[in-house]
Design a protein that fits this description.
Length: about 230
């Protein structure tokens, strides 16, 4: 099954075009825009982090052995951006093959191969280890619609919080915030229709918003550096 959001193009700065809703969407948006997202908070157990045998470990340049996903995560956290690019980004294909062949996690491997920054790599690994199942993984299993819907709502709240925190830090969040305004009505439509494909498209939109936010963060850093 196709994994939604795995082949997105790198965001580029472009002139903003306002998002428009049709009449039916506008009615729902006006009715629901201030309503909280109701999500049943169920505890999610952490995934088992299998420790591999010595001969199954992944070896980084210099001889550093990585024998579990938590070891990979903890080691990446200690790297600066330059070392991350050299040790991890340039070897993503090898890491992907190792995760598939030794750990049997093809969906996680596909998600990591699409991570182009240290922050995204850490976030993806951390979410997986903490038991927060990604919507793409859920779709690949063809699970119950309402389970997928709950996961999407969690993701929506996470992105909203990321945007809120960025705004507090003085980052330009106009485009991400505006795009977020269109998400909740689409979630409600998908819930009424029980449309799994639409959930996937919404998930991709949320990924796009996160990419926009990362771009604005980098732009903000560049502006501060120039001044």
């Amino acid at each position: 099954m196709r994994l939604f959001g795995l082949f997105r193009k790198k965001p580029i700065k472009q002139e903003y075009k306002p998002i428009t809703l049709n009449a039916e969407e506008q009615k729902i948006f006006e009715r629901l825009k201030d309503a909280p997202v109701k999500v049943e908070r169920r505890p999610t157990p952490k995934r088992e982090d299998r420790q591999l045998k010595a001969e199954e470990c992944f070896f980084l340049p210099g001889g550093k052995a990585i024998c579990s996903l938590s070891e990979l995560l903890n080691h990446i956290k200690t790297l600066n951006d330059g070392d991350f690019s050299w040790l991890v980004l340039s070897r993503k294909q090898d890491i992907q093959n190792w995760i598939i062949s030794m750990l049997g996690k093809p969906v996680l491997a596909e998600q990591l191969i699409q991570c182009h920054s240290k922050q995204k790599f850490i976030k993806t690994l951390d979410q997986w280890l903490s038991g927060r199942v990604n919507l793409e993984e859920q779709l690949s299993r063809d699970e119950d619609f309402y389970q997928m819907l709950d996961i999407l709502k969690y993701k929506f709240e996470d992105v909203k919080e990321d945007v809120r925190q960025a705004r507090k830090q003085g980052i330009n969040t106009f485009i991400p915030q505006t795009k977020l305004m269109n998400i909740k009505p689409k979630i409600d439509f998908a819930e009424v229709k029980q449309d799994k494909a639409e959930l996937g498209r919404i998930s991709s939109k949320l990924d796009e918003i996160e990419d926009d936010l990362e771009f604005e963060k980098k732009e903000g850093k560049n502006v501060r550096a120039e001044t």
